[in-house]
Amino acid sequence: MFLKFILPLGLSLILLTLPLEGKPGKGGGPRKSGFKRGPSRAFSPSSQKPAGNFGKSLNRGTGNSLNKLTGRDRAVSIQRQNELSKFQHRQQTAQKLRDLSELNGNENLKSVADKMDQRALDHFEKRNAKIDQLAQRGTETPFDQNQFADPLDQPLTERQIQKLNDPALQQQHRLLNEERKLQHQMQVAQQIRDIAAQNGNANLLQTAQKMELTAAERYASQFQKILGAPATPLTAPLP
What we know:
- By secondary structure, the chain is mainly α.
- Among the domains are: 48-138; 156-228.
- Helix content is 67%, strand content 0%.
- It is built from eight helices and no strands.
């Protein structure tokens, strides 16, 4: 009678001490618990394009690893992420122009999109080469976080642009101002498209499409005009 009560109690205590998740058996049997592990999320470099790989490696640095960086290393990491973000955003804008080109049979938009892509890639590579150069100066050089920033990130008015002594820099700032206008107009058109989709309003959808096409054609015109025009003389009258 005594063993009748003791044995079930002992078995219960043994079961409570078993781990929640055991190892598979020799025959590949199921785990002892009902919890299952999710699929592996390891990154495979060969599964992405070069720009994508670079972005993945940088995105890893935005978490705890970036928080561990200080001084020059942190500034370098942050600026590399900024450059990659700008590059990918410009690629998306160029692709939008290509899409509009196919929908409307406008070969000029496709030509401008290809030039945008190339200019974006050239700038991305130059910026990263500059960051590499600054990063390799060593700790003996006085550290200034602003030295890694892209001077083109700061928008300039037309009056300020005309005061620049470098014709190529004038050109770049004007193109970037037009790019900012294009991106803003595309965002507004996308908001209208979202509202049209929610309400099933075909007229709003057409309005959004016309806005996008008009903005893209205007940008293409300004893009070619700026690249084809000589630099503005410093003594030129301002509007």
